[in-house]
Every structure is written in structure tokens, then in C-alpha cells.
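Please, does this match?
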Amino acid sequence: MKKAVVLLSGGIDSTTTAAIAKNEGYVVYCISFDYGQRHLIELRAAREIAAKIDAKEHMIVNIDMRKIGGSALTSSLDVPKGRFEKKIAQNIPITYVPARNTIFLSYSLAWAEVLLASDIFIGVNAVDYSGYPDCRPEYIGAFENMANLSIKSAVEGKIKIKIHTPIINLSKAEIIRKGIELGVDYSMTHSCYDPTDDGKACGFCDSCELRRKGFRQAGVPDPTIYVNG
């Protein structure tokens, strides 16, 4: 059976992407990252989701990106809150983590080569998102080209890497509807950038705003437990 490495953060986008890969008949190998993020609780969600979809293996890679800094997700900088959708899309926010997807995809590529898996799935989105540059189609295309030039298995013709981005052009509502069709339990997912110690979502960060909007527009009850109820 065909194998796929799937980047799994534990959020809506990556969970739906994993469900799509599974539905397409791939044997799924999930990879998640403990990179010093303040919302580390997302890894608990990722573990539960990987088990739920019967992933062949779930690898959690430890990288301390707090040493690099430059992001509210890996430092003491305040997470922006209460921003309306138009403001979210105006510029790249401080929640951008420098080179994060490049680092994550590089680890995924290395594992794919060892597994002789040609396919990597990542839940990047260029519609309802915070403007991160490493979520754009042109970035994914460039990484895929680089991948096939950089690894031994591709140069020798054993595999040809394909980066799958099945939700890149979908709105958050469309992503949620797709996941519901595939049986995704969104109560298992976590999106908040600044959760409480007991895991409640703040309800006001960009990620929470986009999540709430997605469920509202999809006409699906939001199962998230927010601080404000």
C-alpha cells in the first residue's frame, strides 16, 4: 500500500488533511513537532487524533525554536487578540514562526525518504489564514522542486516527492464540511494560540477567530470550550 507522511498539529486543517490522506487509501505516518510553542496542548490533540485515524506511526520531533525567538508563539511576546478578519489579512502577524514550515517539511522529507514514501501531506491554507508566507502555493511548489533535487532516493529515481495540499484553496467552512463528510470529530482538535493551563481556548486570538467563523459559516456547532463560554 502507498505510504504518506502527514504533518499533524492537532488543529482543524491538519486533522482534515490527515483524514483526506486516509480516505485516499494511504498508509498514514503522522509527524508532529514540539518546538517550544506556548500552545503545547495541541500535541495532546495530535496524539489522540493519530490514534483515532489508526496512523501506522506517530513521530513527535523535539526542536526548541524558543532559542531563535521572533514569534509570539515561542516567546513572551503578546499574542494579538480581538482583531477583525480584514485586519488579520493585512499583514504577517507576530504569531508567524520564522521558517517553521520549511523546518517541518524538511523533517517530513527526511522521514519520507527513509520510508520510501513519495507523498507528503500538509494542511496549509491560503484562504482563511493569517497571511503566513509559507502557506502559499508558490512556496509549496518551490519546496517540492527542491525536495526532488536534494534527496538520494529522488536523484536515483526510486521515488518522486509530491507535496499534497488538499485544503489550500478551501475556506475554513469548506474544510470543516469536508471533515464532517469524512467523519472527523472536531471536538478532538485544538486551534487556540494562547490557551489556559487547563486547555480552554481564549476565543479572541486570530486562530480562534478563524475557527469560530469557520464553524459559523459551515452551519456546524462549534465543539470548542472557550474561556468565555
